[in-house]
Structure prediction request, 403 residues.
Amino acid sequence: MTNVFKTHLGKITLLVGIVALAVGGVWYTQKGATPAATKFSTAKVTRGDLTVTVSATGTLNPVVSVLVGSQVSGVIQRLNADFNSRVKKGQVIAQIEASLFQTQVAQAQASLRSAEANRDKAAVAVRDAQRQLERVTELRGKSLVSDSEMDVARFAHESATVELRVRDAAVAQAQASLEQAQVSFAHTTIYAPIDGVVVSRDVDVGQTVAASLQAPTLFTIAQDLTRMQIETEVDEAFIGVVREGQPVKFSVFAYPSRTFSGQVAQVRLKPKIESGVVKYNCVLVVDNKDSMLKPGMTATVTIDVDSREKILKVPNAALRFVPELSQDELKKLRAGLKRGEALLWTVKPAGLEPVRVQTGLVGEKETEVTGAELEENLAIAVPETANAKNSQSGPRPPGMRLF
Prediction:
């Protein structure tokens, strides 16, 4: 009976010891800085350069592009330029069939000569009326003619003078018609307005162009393809940090492994609203001396709006990390945080410890931080990624594990 009692007593003693150890382990775990349920990955405070960028997309275009049209209607008789042709200012690049306009010039010249003849005839009539008036005036002085005859002579002279002015006006009108016909005739020859490259030809020989409502486009000439521009739209949330002269990097689908450079030339004030989003047009100038960039290419643009060198920085995710603490505890930790301050959780042997830091420049993936307790390579906690393994999580919280 005594042996049985001792056996039961030993089992009870062992059970009590196990429970005591379990309670002690739980108490020690709760005393640590990090709850056992908190999972995190580890990163480090690094020192280096940080650049803040604004991303956008745009289209490459020549800096100066001229649409060459026709001011007269007619049939295209000859084309002296084609796609990619290099032209000089004043060079003949197209000819419209001009026989109709030549006929109009001849008609205008004939009308002018007729008007000039009528004017000369009116001038002769004025001189004749003048002589008649002088003769009647002399006879009237000798009382050889009546007052009515004097009035008739005076009226004839005034009428002839007015008729001469009418004929002078007709001559001026005929001269203007001739000049208009000559200008229209001259417009049948199309000249290049600038030095450049033909990037588009919109007509063929034999095609009829109609300029009744607006000038039809015959060619598009780019002045200089060694210097191009990108027109891109920047969201109003970022337009405040974009300035003229800021460096730009961009890539195009045609050369995915190459990065091109340029700078911001202009931030235009006119807003553009799409689906309730306000955007502003930014013009970027780029160098194209090797002629690899073509008009119309889509560019993926990165504008460098600010930068820092040799600063302490942390992943943006580190500033978003929050351990599994109660709301009261988190409220106490965040109490007194000033504007621009944030909490970093450093990884210590005893668990996670909060550190107040001042944030600075915010990049796409990293943020500038300063603080008395910060140093390079300091281990900090970041949220555990979805594909993180258990081995990548933070160190096991202190305390005894029974299983």
